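Hi,

Apologies if this is the wrong queue. I'm a grad student, and the batch job for GerMN domain-containing protein from Fredinandcohnia quinoae produced an output file that my downstream script rejects. I'm not sure whether the problem is my script or the file. Here is the sequence I used:
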Amino acid sequence: MRKVTKSTLAATVIASSVLLSGCGLFSVEKKVDKIDPPQDVTMDKSTDKEAQEVSKNTDGKDAVTDTVKRDLFLIDENGWVVPQTVELPNDPAAARQVLEYLVAGGPVDEILPDGFRAVIPQDTEVDVKLEGSTLVVDFSKEFGTYEPEDEAKILQAITWTLTQFDTIENVELQVNGYKLDAMPVNQTPISESLSRADGINLDNSDVVDITNTRQVTLYFYVENNDSKYYVPITKRIDNSEKDNIAAVVNALIKGPKLTSNLLNGIHPDAELLGATYKDGLVTLDFNEAIFGSFDEKVVSKHVINSLVLSLTEQPGIESVAITVDGNADITSEDGKKLSEPVTRPVNVNIGSF
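Support response: The file is valid. Your script probably expects a header line. Output copied below for reference.
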C-alpha cells in the first residue's frame, strides 16, 4: 500500500483549493465520472476533458492543468459531516485519491477550509479494489487510532465520499486485509456493506417507535462568520405520512432541532398546497408564506436550495419547480423563473451564497 504523507502527496496538488467563493451553489458542473472496474479503481479520463484548464507557463507556452472537482466529506467545528467541493489533480485512481484526501496530515491539510478537519487518522495507508458495485477499502493498522466520538462520523464520511461515483453503491471496510464486522474503537457494528441508505448526521429526535418510521435526508445550512454551507441531516419520519414528497417538504418546514446551529430559511407559516410529479420533475405549490420576509414576492435561494437538495435525494426526482397559489410567475432572488425546473448540482457546497 502507498504511504499517505504530507511530503509525498501535497506536492501533487495542482491548483487545489476549496471552492467557497465564486460560482455559487447551483452552477452547471460536469457529471461525476464513472470509475472503470479494473483491480485498481480508475476513472475514464477521456470523459474528463471539460476539467482540463490551459494556462501560461513561465516560458509563455501553453501548459495543461488537468483537474477535476470532487466532494470530500469532512467534519466541521460543530461536529457535522459536511461535503466540501475541492479541485483535485485528475488522478486515474480516483477512489483511492479521495480517500487519501480524507487522511489527516496528508494533502488535504493544504486545502482544508477554516473550521474543518479530516476524518481518517494520520499515517493511515489506503488500498482499494472494486468488486461489482462494492468498493473494498483496506486500511493499515493506524486506522484504529481515532477518537471514540468520531466513529460514526468516520463511517459516514468514507461512505458518502466514495458513493459520489456512479459505479460505487456500497463500501466494505478492511484492516490489513481482514474484513471489519465492527469498528475498532467503539465496536459500532458494520453491516455487510455500507451505503448512503445508512444515513448521515442522524437525527432520531422526536421518534417514539423507530420501527414505524423511515429515513429521509434533508439539507439545512450553517452560517459560520463569512462561511455558509449546506449540511445533510438524516431524519426519521412516521410511516403514516405516505407521500414522500409532502413528507420531505413538511419536515423542512418544521426545521432542524432547536438546539442545533442549523437553519432552513423556510417561514414556519409556509404550507404545501399541492405537489405533482412527472418524468422526474416535481412541481410544488405553496401559499404566500413561502416568500418569507421578501416584499418583492421572490423566493429565497436558501429555500430553493434546501428544497432541491432534499427532494432530489428521493429516487426518481431530478428537478423541482415552484408555484405560489397556482401562479407560475414566481422568481428567485436572482430573477430566475421558478416554474422552470431547478436541477440538483453535481457538487453541493461549491461556492459561497
